[in-house]
Amino acid sequence: MASSSFRLTHVLIILALLVLCFLMVLFPAETWHAGVRGLSIWWDVLFPSLFPFLVLSELLLGLGIVHFLGTLLNPLMRPLFRVPGSGGFVFAVSCASGYPTGAKLTAQLWDQKLVTREEGERLVAFTTSSDPIFMIGAVSVGFFHNVSVAPVLVASHYAAAFIVGLLMRFHGRTTDSSAQSPHLSPASEKPKRNRLLQAIHAMHQARMADGRAFGELLRQAVSSSLRLIIIVGGLVVFFSVMMELLVQTGWLGQLYRMTEQLLTWMNLPPALSQSLVGGLFEVTLGAKEAGGAGTAVPLVYKAAAAAFVLSWGGLSVHAQIMSILSNTPMRYGPFLFSRAMHALIAPVIVIVLWVPIMGGSTSPAMSNSGALPADISLYSPDGGQIIFSGLVILVGVLLVLLFFSLLRTVLSPERFQK
Predict the structure, then answer these.
(1) Where is mean pLDDT largest: 201-205, 341-345, 354-358?
(2) Is residue 39 within 8 Å of 232, Cβ to Cβ?
(3) Relative to the CA of 126, which of 24, 118, 170, 388 has its CA 20 to 30 Å away?
(4) Rounded to whole angstroms, what are the CA distances from 352 to 155, 264, 345, 347?
(5) Model confidence pTM above 0.70
(6) How far apart are CA 283 and CA 113, in angstroms?
(7) Residue-wise DSSP of 308-376
(8) CA angle 127-131-136, nearest 5°?
(9) In this structure, are residues 395 and 53 in contact, taking their beta carbons and an 8 Å threshold?
(10) What is the CB neighbour count within 10 angstroms for residue 184?
């Protein structure tokens, strides 16, 4: 039975690819422009925001800095999310550079036996998020032409991620809620006089276990990061082309109508259907459609639709995560469930926070979709701004996490003396 199901799936995939090839022949100009648009998004936004932090994170992992931070953050991350302290570093880097960095770092932690399968699945669930630079520069300024929506989008996105992390702590076995991962290094098994000495010892052990010279470590970090960033770019271009072909053929019309009926039944503006359907496939397209949904749609609903799209991530991001997790025993199912939860929670938080942050403003966005720039490079911040802002966010999030971890240790030190 399973074999026949596998063969049927294989045949359907082949047929879908043949249909896609046929459509590319029918619409060559549209295919070309969609590919160029996807490549522009990758080069102007994704490459500068992802590549430096991928290289930096691999260097910090090889030098033992992640082990150092993980030991210091363990009193905070394990009781809250049932993940080791190194998950705090993953969360900070994900905030600075966006998806799919969290999955990539989690896979590296698995390779170094710092997380179990279920801990990795919990970690990927709430560290897969958009970065503030994209939400502020691209979505708020570029798509909405209204920077005042940025605080609501950022706050709702990360508040929902925090809630997802708390909910996903119940994923997996409940017998190890306070236990260390069985794959952790021996440094965590020996009690130290204080946590700082324990962190320094863990960093030293990790560096000795790695053993690579800095030059070799840098070469491998650049090589590994380039492979991942090229895969990300290819998936972005592929889904950009696929989405354009679906639009050209009109196959999305039925899905648009179904979404409009659902929104009408929920007493929501049906004009948001293009944003939600577009965001199902590609986050950039969905966010752009949310900003240009029309002046008749209140801004609060546009922001809620953008929050849904940013939290879901689009099938392009899902494909990136699947490609990364394919080399580990971590499953896609828990990630899919967490994306659905994140996408449902974030719009609710937007509506709850709208009056406190925006003062009850329901005015539409400053311009409709016809006035939006066609090239993402026209509104995205330059590479220097992206890297500098990302580093500031990385350091800031780490300092906040370290503060709360220290506070947790001071308030209940007896629990973390193991």
Answers:
(1) 341-345
(2) no
(3) 388
(4) 11, 21, 11, 9
(5) yes
(6) 32
(7) HHHHH-HHHHHHHHHHHHTTSS--HHHHHHHHHHHHHHHHHHHHHHHHHHHTT--PPPSS-GGGS-SSG
(8) 150
(9) no
(10) 22
